[in-house]
Amino acid sequence: MKRRLLPFVLAFMLPMLVMLPLKTFADVNDKATKALLNAFDGIILDFDASRIVWTSNDKVLWLYNRANGTQVKVYDGTGTTDIVHEAKLSAQGVVYNLNSDPKIDVWPRVSSVYNWKNGQATQIATGEELFAIRGDGKYALLSRHNVDLSTGQVRDLGFDRIEFSADGTMIYSAPVPPVNAFALYQARPDGTITQLAEPSNKVVPLAHGWSYGYYGPLTDGKRILYRELVESNNYAKHVWALRLRNEDHTVATLSVNPFVSYQPGVSYRINNGWIAYIEYDRAISSKVVNVRSPEGIVKRVFVSPHWWSWTSAPLTIDDLGPDGTVAFTFNDKTYLQYMKEDKPVSINRSPAKFQYREQVFGAPGASQIRMGAWYMLSNGSLYAVRI
């Protein structure tokens, strides 16, 4: 393994980022500069202000301490038929997903999820995939359940998707009997469940498994962003609407797409009232990326070129900062769009991805300070980014 370490504290404290000895790593017209923080002979799967989890050859999983340069081995699958499929940092350790190696003729395929902390790994699911870590690193979202990593409690609410606020409040959608259209719910840490909204259409024809109602909720702790299936004509047509539910319970429609099935975290994101979302503009026959301010002002930041097609050149949103700065990828390039600029401040070739990270200072419930910064992740290399 090789690694280079700059003073890590400066890497995530945005106001101090200007002090780093930065070097340019981008296109000629790139307005952002990057500094290499760490490099590994493998793939970085997740990172935060003080830790990096990475894998070598999909077999060995490492947890690296950015403060002192030490690391520990989380998992070693050398000589087994398993590979590390995914790994995410939790508040206390690492949650990782093992799958049967697709290169080896092993049947039936196995998928298991483990929670590693204090040097010990505990299996928390089998037959499921790790989706994300939410609620300030306290909850693991799996393909069918969510797990409280502190207590081990497993909850299955029959949801389409669950999103956690930092205080443990869950936002999810679930079918309402007897019609089984999907309604929107809130579940507080004390177990109190509130139905926030009933589906607008009670007729429930199925096509590709979709029922009318709400899907894929995301929250910034105050507002809820979700998609709604508003029209379904067998296999010929689905019409999806992207909705925003505000703190005062008013609902705004951001877009209505007959061809695009929004995917949470990929087609839309929300952060601090800012919203980034992809839609299909029928007037120009192109996919576009829009950014909406907390005041409701929408700015179009990207339009796909005329040669794009539905079967190639994918467009995805990678991350969204609390000031509306958005990272997205189209075809083989990844873009960082600073909202004070009229064009991207940085463009890099895939597999590079821009990602935003925050560190919270202060005790829970007290006045807290959030310090954030942008990074660029490219396979086994992590860069600090200054706009």
Q: How many helix segments?
A: 1
Distance between the termini: 30 Å
As for the number of domains, it is 1
**Biggest sheet layout:** 4 strands, antiparallel
Radius of gyration, whole Å: 21 Å
**Which percent band covers the strand fraction?**
over 45%
Kindly name the structural category: mainly beta
- In helices, the fraction of residues equals under 10%
What is the β-strand count?
32
Largest beta sheet: strand ordering: 1-32-31-30
In the CATH scheme, the class would be: Mainly Beta
The residue-averaged pLDDT reads 84
Shape: globular
Low-confidence stretches: 1-26
CATH architecture: 7 Propeller
Structure description:
By secondary structure, the chain is an all-beta fold. Strands 1-32-31-30 form a 4-stranded antiparallel β-sheet. A 4-stranded antiparallel β-sheet has the order 2-3-4-5, with no helix packed on it. The protein has a 4-stranded antiparallel β-sheet with strand order 6-7-8-9, with no helix packed on it. The N terminus is likely disordered. Strand 22 and strand 23 form a beta hairpin. The protein has 1 helix and 32 strands. The longest helix is centred in the N-terminal third of the chain and has 5 residues. The chain is globular and about 55 Å long. The protein has a single domain, classed as Methylamine Dehydrogenase, Chain H, CATH 2.130.10.
